[in-house]
Structure prediction request, 433 residues.
Amino acid sequence: MLGYYIDLALGSLKRNPVLTALMVLAIGLGIGASMTTLTVFHLLSGDPLPGRSGTLFHPQLDPKPPEPHELPHQLTYVDAMNLWQAHRADRQAIMAGGNVKAKGTDAGARAMSLHALATTADFFPMFGVSFIHGSSWTSADDLGKARVAVLSRSAYERLFHGRDGLGQPIRVGKWDFRVVGVIEDWRPAPHFYELDRESYGEGDDVFIPFLASRDLADLQITGYSLDCFGSTTDDTHLENQPCLWLNFWVELGTPAKARGYRDFLANYSREQQAQGRFTYTGPPHIALPDVMQWLDQNGVVPSDVRLKAWIAFGFLLVCLMNTAGLLLAKFLQRTTDISVRRALGASRRQIFFQCLVEAATVGLAGGVLGLLLAWLGLWGIRQSPAEYAGLAHLDVATFAATFVLSIAASLCAGWLPAWRACHIAPALQLKTI
Prediction:
């Protein structure tokens, strides 16, 4: 029966190609606009680490003087080291990023600018980073300030040009680091763990132990954000300076552990108040947002993207209303055909289903057009200077969602016209034949 209804729908659409083209165009334009903005919105607001983000938390403390300000996003060196050395989380990682000059140690090798992340050994298992060669360094390497490095795949290929570089040295700044592991290019979008960088920029290239980076002259990686307060000196070393510059993340596997860690932060803050390091009074200024709360707190999704998404869906609604009007006009033009079918025994339900199949056929054609328009719209976004432009691509889920949305939209547009068509009184129409 469905095949018969599809044949009827195709025949009906062919008999009035202009009206059919207008309906397909209306659906296609609405679907193309909405899927373009929805794809971008999904990329920017999606979970950067599905399945893990609910157990990853960003501790926040307030060491600044008691004046109006938001809770700082980063930690001082003293606070980060105190939390790290307390070992109150399942896993924990200090991190600071910056650009460095790196090269292979072969004669004639040229230095290239790479992004380095100074961090601790738990970074890789905590964030689920996949290794393709070797492995991470160990906690003992952290404490021993070992000069070891993990490279991204692209940095590994650029530095070693296809040769086996595992166990080989690279020069970072003026120091040699031994390569112990290579990871897949890791670029979570957004860069939730280091929002002082571009949220949707390139990934990290070189990973080295944090304490080793602090122990080497000319390799003082301090991140992109440095917020100093109170009395500071001209010393370039930040270990004893009242400066916020370190990112710190912890993994807490259960809600009970998260509550326990929040209590630990509160007690730590009270201790620092008692010692005079934290100079405000009253209850501790602390927070422990997880990944998605952290992104929402920082307003990572640009407001113009949200606005464009609403505008696009408003445009889709207008297109659906126009399509509904065209379908109603089309179905009412066929009152004689519908009356004859009713007289021959077709039920209202069959007429209603036949009309919906025709509307779905229009939606399917509109989905093909909408997919092409969405692809064109995303190509245009990739040519823009926005930092998230390179992420604007259609994926399998978006491809499938385009057709689901187009057919669902056409069924919604066709429901009222189909209901009107199936309630046509056949006796009144047959009298005029």
